[in-house]
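Try this one yourself first.
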């Protein structure tokens, strides 16, 4: 049911979904096709030798080409998605800024990919699995203080009623936070969001400047209350541990697959592109399960926000604002939602708020 949204709002969200779905899927499928082509033919093994036949040089060549070729293949599709989103008023960044973000992304992804590959081929599967688990945990800790500042600028929220209210909300919820920050999201987008990131002394509430400047204080509080729900229910910690276990298990599965299917020895980087293709296929197959886990966590966080604030009417108003501002489809097709939806649909979230407001007798 979409009665909470006007026909124009509903159609606008559906039109954006229909317009950006082909390039989004096209980018994924083309990237997967590239990896399968290189992994299942001698071309991939040949590419790992462009710097020489030494083991370390093969890993270096394969890792660099893996990241750069995937980025090159994805760029036209990413650019098309950007054009579509700009048409709907969601993009404020120029092409120069977008290109700079792409380069910053490469500066992060290339070292991480090379570290993973050197670990996989140099340590053996058991130590590589342990290293992958440790890396997943370390990145969760480092991301807020090292990676996030590479892409956004943050400033402390100005002293005032909103900052006081958000800190009081966190205190009432028993979630210690270091600070309340505002991210300069408006230089890229008009979309609204907030999140809580970090662990322990690095934990902070982060609100997009687009949210702070356009939404009433009560709605900002509800968005933050939802994010505090993730902390309260240890979703970040649980996600980090699951990510670590998944990374370790993934290394073990990939090592077993290569032992059975690769014409090269386990420590021979000529099978690097087959490794990447198998990892991409596994990630795609696991995607719907990950989305289902995410939707469950989001429903729990919604319930937490409602219990913490006791304001279902404001929650509904907030969901309406987020949906309209982000040009989301209020009620996307069920199959698409099951495959790719990481959150309950806006219609489902509003229905849950109404059920909370009128519990059964």
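Now uncover the answer:
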């Amino acid at each position: 049911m979409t009665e909470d949204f006007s026909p124009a709002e509903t159609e606008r969200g559906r039109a954006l979904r229909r317009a950006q779905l082909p390039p989004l899927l096209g980018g994924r499928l083309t990237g997967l096709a590239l990896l399968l082509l290189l992994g299942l033919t001698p071309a991939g093994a040949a590419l790992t030798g462009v710097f020489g036949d030494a083991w370390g040089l093969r890993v270096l060549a394969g890792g660099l080409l893996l990241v750069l070729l995937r980025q090159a293949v994805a760029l036209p599709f990413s650019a098309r998605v950007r054009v579509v989103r700009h048409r709907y008023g969601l993009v404020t960044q120029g092409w120069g800024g977008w290109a700079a973000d792409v380069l910053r992304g490469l500066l992060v992804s290339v070292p991480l990919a090379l570290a993973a590959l050197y670990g996989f081929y140099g340590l053996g599967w058991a130590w590589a699995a342990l290293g992958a688990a440790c890396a997943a945990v370390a990145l969760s800790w480092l991301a807020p203080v090292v990676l996030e500042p590479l892409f956004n600028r943050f400033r402390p929220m100005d002293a005032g009623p909103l900052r006081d209210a958000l800190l009081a909300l966190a205190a009432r919820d028993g979630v210690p936070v270091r600070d309340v920050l505002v991210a300069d999201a408006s230089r890229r987008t008009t979309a609204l969001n907030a999140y809580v990131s970090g662990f322990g002394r690095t934990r902070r509430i982060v609100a997009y400047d687009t949210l702070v400047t356009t939404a009433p204080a009560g709605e900002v509080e509800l968005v933050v209350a939802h994010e505090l729900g993730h902390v309260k229910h240890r979703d970040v910690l649980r996600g980090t541990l699951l990510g670590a276990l998944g990374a370790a298990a993934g290394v073990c599965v990939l090592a077993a697959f290569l032992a059975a299917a690769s014409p090269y020895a386990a420590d021979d980087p000529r099978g690097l592109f087959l490794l990447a293709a198998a990892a991409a296929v596994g990630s795609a197959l696991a995607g719907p399960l990950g989305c289902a886990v995410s939707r469950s966590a989001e429903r729990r966080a919604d319930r937490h926000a409602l219990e913490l604030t006791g304001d279902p009417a404001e929650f509904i108003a907030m969901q309406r604002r987020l949906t309209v501002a982000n040009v989301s489809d209020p009620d996307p097709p069920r199959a698409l939602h099951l495959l790719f939806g990481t959150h309950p649909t806006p219609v489902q979230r509003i229905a849950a708020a109404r059920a909370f407001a009128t519990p059964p007798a």
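Discussion: The radius of gyration is 22 Å. The chain has 13 helices and four strands.
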